[in-house]
Predict the 3D structure of the following.
Amino acid sequence: MKKSERTRQYIIESAAPIFNSKGYAATSIADILDQTGLAKGCLYGHFDSKDQLAEAVLSLSFEKVAMAVKISTESKVTPREKLIALLEFYENYSVNPIIKGGCPLLNAAVDADDQYSELSKTASKFMNRSVLFIASIIQLGKERKQFQASIEPLEEAKYIFATIEGAIMMSKLANSPSILNSILAKLKKQVNLSYSIFRKYKNQL
């Protein structure tokens, strides 16, 4: 990696927790300069505007979360185990997020109004990507005849993702990770009892 690329990456990495903690509107260029120790000319040598930096930061934050989720699931063998691992990844997430400041998607949703349409587009792409990832696990379970045939992967994935994000928001507002963890426990129970063909059959014996 060239020096200019390393500097650009350093700026993005340094700015990520600031944007995620303070929000886009409240974060100033001075905040970024204080954090990085760089001169304004150096910063603008890599980014034309605060908007461009914010978009790069948001993309990096989303990629970090996506990679962490992928790592948590890829070592699991069955689709059920993968789905449970994904849910367990989010335990205590309201107080122990990947990026300091909380869930970058929720924070971006607050900031991404009509004035910051590019942030909204970036956040929307990550949301759709996250939903499709969950749907792919559920679809795999159906293909392997481990999940019930009646389950609609995309609709179920939307429900799971929306429930997780809503639970994170509630836990953050209440300053209580137990809210998130209890909802995740209910989702895990749903996966274990409602999704699995074999478990459901066993319960009927």
